[in-house]
Amino acid sequence: MARSRLAFSQPIDRSAILLMIALARCDQLVLIKGDRTAAHVRDFSWQGQKVGLDDRAFVLNFSRPMDHASVESNLRIEPPLQGRISWAGRRMAYTLNDPPPYGYDFKLRLQDARDRFSDPNDDRTRMQPYVGEFRSRDQAFIYLGIEGEEAGRLVLYNLATEQRKILTPANLVVVDFKPYPQGDRILFAANDRASQTQNLLNQQLYTVTTGLPAQTAPALPGQRQPEAEPTRPVGETHLVLDDRDYQNMQFDLSADGEKIVVQRVNRQNPAEYGLWLIESEQSPRPLEGQPGAIS
Q1: Beta bridge partners of 60
Q2: Of the residues 19, 46, 188, 274, which has the fewest C-beta atoms closer than 10 A?
Q3: What tens digit of pLDDT does each residue of 105-147 get?
Q4: Cβ contacts of residue 225 below 8 Å, gap of 6+?
Q5: How many CB atoms within 10 Å of residue 241?
Q6: What DSSP element (H or E) covers 13?
Q7: Beta carbons of 132 and 94 less than 8 angstroms apart
Q8: Ordered structural domains, the chain, with CATH
């Protein structure tokens, strides 16, 4: 017993005991007075993003459970975007009533909000002011030129900048085209200009880049916005389907841009005709079943 009392009388033991007492007192003070560190926005899912028609909701992720009324009454979007708010724990989702208008810079501001457990009379617990920024996409459209250097070529017209850009090369005469849903590419059928003057219509399928950033899928509530792919330069043309053994007729593009269906005729045996399927990163293959036409 004497040894035990002697062991605790050592200086290092006394220091440890005093430290534990001090920590216990600190814990008591926190429990009594509360943690006065101000809440803040940890993540804004549209920060620095370009949003389009498919982007209908953003998410704010807070560092603490928030007082919902104080957040909702102090949230500002400039220019205004009307929407409705829903909560899941520390995450707030804002769903737009209408798609964002084209070509605007937006600011999201939030200040004077409080967390759920803070003292409303203590200014030190007011949320740190937050400002987020995002932009809506420029409005643009594609048309098939009919005059001058645009004749037979695809042209991109940006309504925001009022600029025209010819996309397809001068040696190709475009017959038909389908935009990809992401907006970054166009699928088109074209004849060689020199062959067309000789009435040799041998159309092939190509893609061409628009120079616009690809529209990524919108983030779901509680998830981060996926990283956008780097924007490719305008006018990059890639051959998708040649006409060496088959004549290419009508074609169509799936809604997700992952499949192309083409009506083809065998050059050596015209009785052999039907639909072919082109999927991403795969070789063209004929569809099983009876031949058909694309309406």
Answers
A1: 44, 92
A2: 19
A3: 999 999 989 998 877 777 777 888 999 999 998 888 999 999 9
A4: 45, 46, 49, 216, 218, 219
A5: 19
A6: helix 11-33
A7: no
A8: 41-136 (2.60.40.3710), 140-286 (no CATH)
**Could you tell me the end-to-end alpha-carbon distance of the chain, in angstroms, rounded to an integer?**
99
User: At 9, which amino acid appears?
Assistant: S
Q: Is residue 66 a contact partner of residue 115, using CB atoms and an 8 Å limit?
A: yes
Q: Give residue-wise pLDDT tens across range 148-157.
A: 999 999 999 9
Q: Extract the tokens encoding 274.
A: 């039907």
- Describe the strand order of the beta sheet including 154-158 as a list of residue ranges: 140-144, 154-158, 163-166
Which three-class secondary structure state does DSSP give residue 254? coil
DSSP 102-161: TT-EEEEEE-S-BBTTS-TT-GGGBPPPEEEEEEEPPPEEEEE--SGGGTTSEEEEETTT
Given a contact cutoff of 8 angstroms between Cβ atoms, the answer to whether 130 and 43 are in contact is no
Q: Amino acid identity of 187?
A: L
Q: Is the dihedral of CA 43, 47, 48, 53 positive or negative?
A: positive
Helices and strands (H, E) in the chain, number of each type: 4, 19
How far apart CA 162 and CA 38 sit, in angstroms, is 46
Alpha helices (H) along 178-249? 193-196
**Whether the Cβ atoms of residue 140 and residue 163 lie closer than 8 Å to each other:** no
Give Cβ neighbours of residue 68 (< 8 Å, ≥ 6 apart): 87, 92
Q: Determine how β-strand 50-51 pairs with β-strand 130-136.
A: parallel
